[in-house]
């Protein structure tokens, strides 16, 4: 199997060498072997793994969740197991969307209560000063 230096792996995956070192420290990538010169060398499929990690990050998976996905991949997990993990992640994302929507609506309400600086007291600052209502 082809071996890649850290620089070649980084270029192939479109990431920095620091990113590869970080993923290696977290256990997302196998420990690199070393040449006699001390340079790290990775198996040729490391680029595929790094791209997998980056795609999973773009879908909102955390590095811990990606570690689980990589284990599923390595173990040949069933589609049912992977689907369950993806459904769990989607639930988390839907809750975040609902929270962000509530925040947006609260900000819209505060902004609409403001008369663009014409009042003596800014209603936005006044609302932020109020104690939280139960």
Cα shape = elongated
Order of helices and strands: EHHEEHHHH
Give me the count of strands. Answer: 3
Tally of contiguous helical segments: 6
User: Strand order within the widest sheet?
Assistant: 1-3-2
Proportion of helical residues: 55-70%
> pLDDT average, as an integer?
90
Taking pLDDT < 50 over at least 5 consecutive residues as the criterion, the unreliable ranges are: none
Query: Rg from C-alpha positions?
Result: 24 Å
Quote the distance from N terminus to C terminus: 63 Å
Biggest sheet, in brief?
3 strands, antiparallel
Range of strand content: 5-15%
Structural class: mainly alpha
Short description:
By secondary structure, this protein is mainly α.
What does this structure look like?
By secondary structure, the protein is mainly α. Helix content is 64%, strand content 7%. It is built from 6 helices and 3 strands. The longest helix has 35 residues.
Considering the chains and any ligands shown, give keywords for the structure:
134 residues, 6 helices, 7% strand, elongated
Topology of this structure?
Layout: E1 3-5, H1 6-13, H2 17-26, E2 33-34, E3 40-43, H3 46-58, H4 63-75, H5 79-113, H6 123-129
Antiparallel strand pairs: 1-3, 2-3
């Amino acid at each position: 199997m082809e071996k890649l230096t850290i620089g070649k792996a980084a270029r192939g995956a479109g990431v920095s060498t620091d990113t590869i070192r970080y993923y290696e420290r977290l256990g997302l990538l196998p420990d690199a072997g070393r040449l006699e010169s001390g340079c790290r060398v990775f198996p040729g499929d490391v680029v595929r793994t790094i791209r997998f990690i980056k795609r999973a990050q773009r879908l909102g998976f955390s590095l811990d969740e990606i570690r689980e996905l990589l284990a599923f991949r390595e173990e040949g997990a069933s589609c049912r197991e992977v689907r369950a993990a993806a459904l769990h992640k989607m639930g988390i994302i839907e809750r975040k969307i609902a929270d962000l929507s509530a925040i947006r609506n609260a900000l819209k309400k505060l902004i609409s209560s403001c008369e663009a600086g014409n009042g003596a007291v800014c209603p936005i600052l006044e609302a932020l000063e109020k104690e939280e209502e139960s």
